[in-house]
Write a structure and sequence with these properties.
Length: about 200
């Protein structure tokens, strides 16, 4: 089970020859731009939300590839399947593989990488931790600010769930997709977790 929770981070000689493919996923929070190569996922780019999606977080969501479906690599297919499950069928997430990652930040040995892996492995769907708690989990209780920097650097949001990291005061804190998106994602997870508990 642990191997499923920490996806393979791959490295190849001659990385300049990495040929990225792109796909756009139409999700309840807008268009997610996904890039990756045959080796792994490079990035998920979030749209900035200026208004909440119509309907509530528990409404039946759609999530489908609207661009790039014909040339998707296996990691992109795994990513879109995982994101579809996240938004539409959270009970299926546990049975799906997390795609391999192939972003340079996730291959370098650094505190940022340690924080992101810890977040992915230890903070589950529907949970939240403070920046300080995540610093403790990652092995440096005095590095809450560095955890904030790691969250800003996260190239694969939602899958590496930086939206689950909040301020010690309970406020949501900042997010690359904007605070409305962070609040929507947290609300979505809370509602779906409650549904799964019944």
């Amino acid at each position: 089970m642990a191997s499923r929770l920490v996806p393979k981070v791959t490295s190849k000689e001659g990385e300049s020859q990495c040929k990225q493919k792109h796909a756009v996923l139409l999700s309840p929070v807008g268009k997610l731009k996904i890039s990756g190569c045959e080796t792994g996922l490079h990035e998920i780019k979030l749209p900035k939300m200026s208004v909440l999606p119509s309907g509530r977080a528990e409404s039946s969501a759609t999530c489908e590839v609207c661009e790039g479906a014909e040339e998707m690599t296996e990691p992109l297919k795994q990513c879109t399947a995982w994101l579809h499950a996240y938004f539409c069928e959270p009970a299926r997430m546990a049975s799906l593989p997390i795609p391999a990652f192939h972003h340079p930040l996730l291959r370098r040995d650094s505190f940022t990488r340690q924080v992101l892996w810890t977040l992915l492995r230890d903070v589950k769907f529907g949970e939240a931790v403070s920046y300080k708690q995540l610093a403790d989990l990652a092995g440096n209780s005095r590095a809450a600010r560095a955890v904030g920097g790691a969250m800003r650097s996260n190239p694969i949001p939602i899958i590496i769930p930086c939206h689950r990291v909040i301020c010690s005061s309970g406020q949501s804190g900042n997010y690359g997709g904007g605070n409305l998106m962070k609040e929507w994602l947290l609300s979505h997870e809370k509602l779906q977790k409650e549904k799964l508990a019944y």
